[in-house]
Amino acid sequence: MHILENIAKHISLEAGEESHFLSLLTSQKIKRKQFWLREGEICKHSAFVVSGCLRAYNIDTNGFEHILQFAPPDWWVADMYSLLSQEAGNLFVDAIEDTEVLLLSKQKQEQLYVDIPKFERFFRIITENSLVASRQRLLDNLSLPAQDRYALFCKRYPTLIQCLPQKQIAAYIGVTPEFFSKMRKALLRK
C-alpha cells in the first residue's frame, strides 16, 4: 500500500503498528470537479492521495483563483490552518480528476500520537517540510520572474505538466492565462 511506503520514508513501523494505523483511515472517492473542502468549513481530516489529483486554492475578492498546492498521488493535503485551529478555513480543495483519498481525522491523529508516539515524528517531519516548501514558494513568488516560477513548478510537479489545464498552472505561478500562453510559446521557440 502506497501510504505505508510514504510513512516508511520517515519512520519504521512494526506489523501491528501498520495494522493499527490502517484501521484508523477511511477511504473516500472524489469525482472530478467535486469539492473535498470549501472555504468557511472546518477541516477535520488530513487526506493522503491514493490516485487522481487534488488542488488547494483560495479565491480573492476579485474572483481570481490562487492555487497553493496540487496533490498528486503519494501527497498529503489539508487546510493546515483550519485543521490545527479547528476554525473555519480559507481554502477550497477540489478534484482535478477522479480521485481516491485516505482520510485521517484530527481526532484519530491525536489518538495515534498516544498509541504510537513515533507518528508524532512523522507528522512533524511532513509539517516541517510543508512549512519550508511554503516559505520558499512565497519567496520565489516575490523575487523570481514568471519563467523561473514555471521552471520550479515543472520540477516540483513533473507528472502534472501535460495533464493540467494551462489556466491552473498560470494560477499556481501567479500570472494570467494570457501571459502564461505567451510565455510558453516563447519558451518553446527557444
What do you see in this structure?
By secondary structure, this protein is of the alpha+beta class. It has two domains: 2-127, Jelly Rolls (Sandwich); 144-190. 47% of the residues lie in helices and 24% in strands. Strands 1, 2, 3, 4, 5 and 6 form a six-stranded antiparallel β-sheet that branches. Helix 7 (166-173) packs across helix 8 (177-189). The longest helix has 26 residues, at 118-143. It is globular, with a radius of gyration of 18 Å. The N and C termini lie far apart (42 Å). 25% of the residues are buried. The model has no long low-confidence stretch (mean pLDDT 94).
Which keywords apply here?
190 residues; alpha+beta; Jelly Rolls; 2 domains; 6-stranded antiparallel sheet; 47% helix; 24% strand
Rg calculated over all Cα atoms? 18 Å
For the sheet with most strands, the description reads: 6 strands, antiparallel
CATH topology of the largest domain: Jelly Rolls
- Specify the overall morphology: globular
CATH C-level class of the largest domain is Mainly Beta
- What is the typical, i.e. mean, pLDDT? 94
Catalogue the unreliable spans.
none
CATH homologous superfamily designation of the largest domain: Jelly Rolls
* CATH second-level architecture of the largest domain: Sandwich
Give the count of structural domains: 2
Quick one: how many beta strands? Answer: 6
Query: What order do the helices and strands follow?
Result: HHEEEEEHEHHHHH
Question: Which structural class is indicated by helix and strand composition?
Answer: alpha+beta
Task: Give the number of helices.
Answer: 8
